[in-house]
Amino acid sequence: MEYICGKRTAQMDGLTLAAHLVARLTGAGEIVLDLGTGDGRYVAEQARRNQANFYIGLDACRENLVEISRKAPANSLFLIASGENLPGELTGLIGSITLNFPWGSLLEGLLESVSEVMTGLRMVARPGAKLELRLNESALRMSGRSLETGREQVISALEGAGFAVEMVELLEVTGLKKFPSSWARRLASGREGQVLQIRAFYIPVPEPVTPPAGEMVLTGAAPL
After folding, report:
1. Are residues 96 and 67 in the same domain?
2. Same domain, 77 and 123
3. What pLDDT, on a 0 to 100 scale, did the predictor assign at position 89?
4. What is the pTM of this model?
5. In the predicted model, is pLDDT for residue 201 greater than 80?
6. Which helix (H) or strand (E) holds 174?
7. Which among 51, 60, 61, 171 could disulfide-bond with 195, CB atoms 3.0 to 4.6 Å apart, if both were Cys?
8. Which domain does 8 fall in, by range?
9. In this structure, is residue 219 part of a structural domain?
10. Does residue 176 surpass a pLDDT of 60?
11. CATH number of the domain to which 105 belongs
């Protein structure tokens, strides 16, 4: 997988990532993935506030991450990848996932339970992993959906992908103003509509076991 530090990018394999995490995770800390991290400010701010955790910001646009990655806290890492093709090195590592104001193909992938985005989320999430999604009305309108339609679709998609939704609420303007993101401040003006906040957690669904060819499957008690 490709990571960025200032203007320099390089490849990191699973073993190097593991060593990186062991050196920086402390106590009961968890690995947090911010998917579609944009300018990266959210990851940098959270990493400074919660030094027991390790934060990974992932985005396909490297130009937005040059400055923030150059001075990022030691307990953070910025990766160059799309939400539709998450790095396999993250498989089963992530204890918390955040998606702040997704749009475009990332948003579309969150509105369908069978999508590359949902497949990637299931791949990287640990059992019980938390998911926080903040969905802005203007992005939904651009995709031809109302806030209510988007709410129903994303809840259905998450539940279909194995995420149990436990909270849905509107994010107040005061919360947006304090949110560490330039886009959040724009949303706080109210011109872009309301923001929906959804929290869920991942419950893996066991894969059905297919018996070998020719083996009889008993579905009930045998007659006496």
Report:
1. no
2. no
3. 95
4. 0.88
5. yes
6. helix 173-178
7. 171
8. 1-25+38-85
9. no
10. yes
11. 3.40.50.150
